[in-house]
Amino acid sequence: QVGVTAQKTMRLLPASGRKATQKVVVGDQDGVVTCFGIKKGEAVPVFKTLPGQKIARLELGGALNTPQEKIFVATGSEVRGFTKRGKQFLSFETNLTESIKAMYISGADLFLCASYIYNHYCDCKDQHYYLSGDKINDVLCLPVDKVNRITPILACQDRVLRVLQGSDLLYEVEVPGPPTVLALNNGNGGDSGEEIVYGTSDGKLGLIEVTGSKPVPKWEIGNEKKRGGILCIDSFDILGDGVKELLVGRDDGMLEVYNFESADDPLLRYDHALSESIASIQGGCVGKDGYDEILASTYAGWLTGLTTEPVHREGGSGEELKLSQEMQSKISSLRNELEHLQIKVLQEREKYQQSSQSSTAVSSVPAFSVNDKFTLNKDDASYSLILEVQTAIDNVLVQSDVPIDLLDVDKNSAVVSFSSCDSEPNSNFLLATYRCQANTTRLELKVRSIEGQYGTLQAYVTPRIQPKTCQVHQYQIKPLSLHQRTHSIDHDRPMNALMLKGQFSFAEIHSWVVFCLPEVPEKTPAGESITFYFQNTFLGTQLESTYRKGEGCFKSDNISTISILKDVLSKEATKRKINLNISYDVNEESVRHTLKLIHPKLEYQQLLAKKVHLIDALRELQVHEGNVDFLLPKYRSILEEADQLLEEYKRQPAHLERLYGMITDLFIDKFKFKGTNVKTKVPLLLEILDGCDQDGLIAFFEAA
């Protein structure tokens, strides 16, 4: 184990002999570069550098077409180079004002990215520069020896790969999720040298051929199994069939091996679950000559190897005896190590007790790092909050000042308890404690928010360390929290529009949009004006926002979205004492259109609720009668599917109330724009909803 590691910070050095094993080099967040080999199952250190700033990336480099055995690390705004023996030969202080987030090396070319800035250096001299419209997560360059040109590719948070030429954008490639990692297909860009594999934060994989003029998508794999986001990719022939497999590491600890049986799409061949997110993955020969391995480094700094070496030796009793002796010596050395550690812990504990009771005692809070991710899932319109700590978690307290539902997560083994909270004086709507089992370092929670109600969700994380200490992490629940960025929308839908005019700058209106909607880059976009498209993940309605200095236009087929924007934007403008001129254009047809979108979901949830209410009665009948052949087939099928129905109902608490709430809001908002208050008619509306008749519902909306 090393310190906490970031994404893409572990590599295998090329083997020096014909069949020699490879050395592992890893950089951690204490700023230490560690290089080691494995001999007889034990780690043998080669070199270790002194601590410094956090290491954000580690890459191997060297002259083109020679073994890539020089080690480069990005730390702060500096790039350092080490030989394979650990001697530092380069310290290059870049002109970047932010710390480096992503790095790629090809011969004498160095590609660096901070949050929004890309820089290309050749022999440490500045060559090209590009300012991206959204955060850059990774950078890559096509192999120069194959394509005879320098083609850098940036993976950006707004679901786009940006292909550059010099300091200019050549073209953009839309991908199905925010790309977190890029890799050359087969490790060399495939036959053409133009093929790149990308992984997204919502767990999708894809291959794109980046030609000189346009992108050619080859394949794409969705995330059917609802696994974590992809953090690292490598190509290596682990199956020994002459074709390189795709090795993938995810942030929920899933390690996957895909192979290409048919030449087209890859198939998942193997997977293995680790307990922490996998920050880096490599294929190679590390532990034993002749046996390939997959090596993974996890967030807390554990390096784990999966080998192709058969664990059970075949052969006579002599072999078994030899193995048991090998095992026994390993077990005894581990026992000694454990005893040594226990003695050390006792000594340190005594030392701490003495120093804490002395008259000059100074209390110190132990520092620990938390890796967190708060993202909206498109499939079920819920937010996932993933908390990962470098030591075991004791408990997590979740508090929210807006009404939200906590949903069940299958992978979560923590015990949850709710505390009653008073929402009136200090707007406290949720207080829940998750008590974790021993050795839990990763906790996943799911919450669903209500659009129009915005505030803060807070997580108080307490790990199992002494003295007890806690970190607070805050997450914004935005007014239009269930909206997700999308590349395009359907312009044929009936749209309502909201127009703003006033004495505000481009940066000011942009900051209001950032406040209202998720997935909008915090930095004000370059240029005069900007357009963003969004989709509501719960209903499938859409929003188009276009704005510039002094004016903004927001269009949506859901009148409630427009109503929320109108309220929030006017409140934000009032805070800054800016006078807004607001006008709107309401399309009557849009209300009917939105109701038609909601209705199938409403019908499904009402039917599910009815079935669930019948289960107990039907089960009682089954017990009394002994057999249920006399029941109608629809009731028999309810009994057969009872467990799945209950499971689904439990997973989606308050789903029906949410839909009722949305239809009620739609009703109130429709008439709010006409200047009529229809709150007295809401009980009537709820009666009609219980009847679940689409035409009746539309008629009620139009008659009122």
UniProtKB/TrEMBL annotation:
<dbReference type="InterPro" id="IPR036322">
    <property type="entry name" value="WD40_repeat_dom_sf"/>
</dbReference>
<feature type="domain" description="BBS7 beta-propeller">
    <location>
        <begin position="10"/>
        <end position="308"/>
    </location>
</feature>
<feature type="domain" description="BBS7 platform">
    <location>
        <begin position="483"/>
        <end position="585"/>
    </location>
</feature>
<feature type="domain" description="BBS7 helical hairpin">
    <location>
        <begin position="588"/>
        <end position="701"/>
    </location>
</feature>
<feature type="domain" description="BBS7 GAE">
    <location>
        <begin position="366"/>
        <end position="475"/>
    </location>
</feature>
<dbReference type="Pfam" id="PF23743">
    <property type="entry name" value="Beta-prop_BBS7"/>
</dbReference>
<dbReference type="GO" id="GO:0005930">
    <property type="term" value="C:axoneme"/>
</dbReference>
<dbReference type="GO" id="GO:0034464">
    <property type="term" value="C:BBSome"/>
</dbReference>
<dbReference type="Pfam" id="PF23361">
    <property type="entry name" value="BBS7_pf"/>
</dbReference>
<dbReference type="GO" id="GO:0016020">
    <property type="term" value="C:membrane"/>
</dbReference>
<dbReference type="InterPro" id="IPR016575">
    <property type="entry name" value="Bardet-Biedl_syndrome_7_prot"/>
</dbReference>
<dbReference type="Pfam" id="PF23360">
    <property type="entry name" value="BBS7_GAE"/>
</dbReference>
<dbReference type="GO" id="GO:1905515">
    <property type="term" value="P:non-motile cilium assembly"/>
</dbReference>
<dbReference type="Pfam" id="PF23349">
    <property type="entry name" value="BBS7_hp"/>
</dbReference>
<feature type="coiled-coil region">
    <location>
        <begin position="324"/>
        <end position="351"/>
    </location>
</feature>
<dbReference type="InterPro" id="IPR056333">
    <property type="entry name" value="BBS7_pf_dom"/>
</dbReference>
<dbReference type="InterPro" id="IPR056335">
    <property type="entry name" value="BBS7_hairpin"/>
</dbReference>
<dbReference type="InterPro" id="IPR056334">
    <property type="entry name" value="BBS7_GAE_dom"/>
</dbReference>
<dbReference type="InterPro" id="IPR056332">
    <property type="entry name" value="Beta-prop_BBS7"/>
</dbReference>
<dbReference type="GO" id="GO:0043005">
    <property type="term" value="C:neuron projection"/>
</dbReference>
<keyword id="KW-0175">Coiled coil</keyword>
<dbReference type="GO" id="GO:0008104">
    <property type="term" value="P:intracellular protein localization"/>
</dbReference>
<dbReference type="GO" id="GO:0036064">
    <property type="term" value="C:ciliary basal body"/>
</dbReference>
<protein>
    <submittedName>
        <fullName>BBS7 protein</fullName>
    </submittedName>
</protein>
